[in-house]
């Protein structure tokens, strides 16, 4: 039943503490998993104090465990180790604190870790987080490279130095985080989110050196894998060495075998690009020179042809032909006129010879009766006394028939 309180009748602290202790006590013993962030053993005491942290969230719980339980472990418990603890939650009313009293502690072995990773890998693959079509290409020349790495780590030096050796103008935004231990997941995820929010960052590199399976375990954490899958900026994974294969390598857009390999993948080699530009420039120059030479040869060939070597040669030939035809036409026309003139003279001579006037020219005359103009052909037609008109070659004369 809820406790009835009011400003006039408040519950004392001891009452609330007792109720909390009763409520927590009802939970009973539970199995919980986490990473050891602190392990304190005080001399002369039979109890050790641990702090267990969730691998994917910034949540921790204090745990007390008997020293005998720790001494019974096959290997000493160290910070960062993953453990499974059987403990009962206890609320201490006097101090107002909650702690877990453990009676059994089991380190998570490599085999168990690998089995869990395989199961997580299967689940994430079924969701499509590792699909090749999700992967984005890297930019050819990024202006700013986001780098998530350990503090003052060799991996950071390898990436930065090799990238600047290849392309001196490249800029980095470095996020130094914990890459091992209980805080690694939360810090790396937060760094990814900060770099993803920065619009100047063109590509993100997540890197760290090699290590054991336990050391690289944060980079197979589900929260980190999903954070990388949610990034729109291309992500390069450079975790450990060639043999190391955390789940981050599968979800990243590009997997680099080493930090040095990551530097080679994110920026081009300036010397190689300059050599390629030189080769392309030489090829372009050679192509241009060959094209100009080919066109010049074509022009020379055209100019060497008679029609272009002496453009008026054909015109002169045609002009001469026109002149010859004109002269022939003139000669033909003159000959034709001369022949026509001769024919006309002959025709005129014939006509003249046949003309009555020619007869008159030879002394003949045409006799007509003046009265009616009748030509007299027989003497009977002009009896004596008939007035006649004589037509001569040069005129007329009058006469009377006798």
Automatic annotation (TrEMBL):
It is an enzyme of class 3 (hydrolase). Pfam families: Exonuc_VII_L, tRNA_anti_2. Its EC number is 3.1.11.6. It catalyses: Exonucleolytic cleavage in either 5'- to 3'- or 3'- to 5'-direction to yield nucleoside 5'-phosphates. Residues 15-105 form the OB-fold nucleic acid binding domain. It is found in: Cytoplasm. The keyword Disulfide bond does not apply. Keywords: Cytoplasm, Exonuclease, Hydrolase, Nuclease. Residues 129-340 form the Exonuclease VII large subunit C-terminal domain. Transmembrane segments: none annotated. It comes from the Bacteria. Belongs to the XseA family. Heterooligomer composed of large and small subunits. Bidirectionally degrades single-stranded DNA into large acid-insoluble oligonucleotides, which are then degraded further into small acid-soluble oligonucleotides. This is Exodeoxyribonuclease 7 large subunit. It comes from Motilibacter deserti. The gene is xseA.
């Amino acid at each position: 039943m809820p406790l009835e309180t009011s400003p006039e009748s408040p519950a004392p602290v001891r009452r609330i503490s007792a109720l909390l202790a009763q409520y927590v006590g009802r939970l009973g013993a539970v199995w919980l998993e986490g990473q050891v962030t602190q392990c304190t053993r005080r001399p002369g005491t039979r109890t050790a104090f641990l702090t267990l942290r969730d691998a994917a969230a910034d949540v921790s719980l204090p745990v007390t465990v008997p020293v005998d339980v720790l001494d019974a472990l096959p290997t000493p418990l160290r910070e960062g180790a993953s453990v499974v603890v059987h403990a009962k939650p206890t609320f201490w009313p006097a101090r107002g604190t909650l702690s877990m009293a453990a009676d059994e502690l089991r380190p998570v072995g490599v085999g168990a870790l690998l089995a869990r990773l395989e199961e997580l890998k299967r689940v994430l693959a079924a969701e499509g987080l590792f699909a090749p079509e999700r992967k984005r290409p890297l930019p050819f020349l990024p202006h700013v490279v986001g780098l998530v790495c350990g503090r003052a780590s060799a991996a950071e030096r390898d990436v930065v130095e090799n990238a600047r050796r290849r392309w001196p103008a490249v800029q980095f935004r470095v996020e130094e985080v914990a890459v091992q231990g209980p805080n690694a997941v939360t810090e790396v995820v937060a760094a990814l989110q900060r770099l993803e929010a920065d619009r100047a960052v063109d590509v993100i590199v997540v890197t760290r050196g090699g290590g054991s399976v336990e050391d690289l375990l944060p980079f197979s954490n589900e929260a980190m894998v999903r954070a990388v899958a949610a990034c729109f900026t291309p992500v390069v994974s450079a975790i450990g060495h060639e043999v190391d294969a955390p789940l981050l390598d599968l979800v990243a857009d590009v997997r680099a075998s080493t930090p040095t390999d990551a530097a080679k993948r994110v920026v081009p080699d300036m010397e190689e690009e300059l050599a390629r530009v030189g080769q392309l420039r030489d090829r372009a120059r050679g192509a241009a020179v060959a094209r100009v030479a080919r066109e010049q040869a074509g022009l020379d060939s055209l100019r060497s042809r008679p029609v272009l070597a002496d453009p008026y040669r054909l015109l002169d030939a045609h002009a001469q032909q026109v002149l010859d035809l004109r002269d022939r036409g003139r000669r033909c026309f003159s000959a034709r006129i001369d022949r026509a003139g001769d024919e006309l003279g002959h025709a005129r001579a014939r006509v003249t010879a046949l003309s009555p006037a020619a007869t008159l020219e030879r002394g003949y005359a045409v006799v007509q009766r003046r009265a009616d103009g009748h030509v007299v052909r027989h003497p009977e037609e002009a009896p004596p006394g008939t007035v006649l008109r004589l037509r001569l070659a040069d005129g007329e004369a009058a006469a009377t028939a006798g």
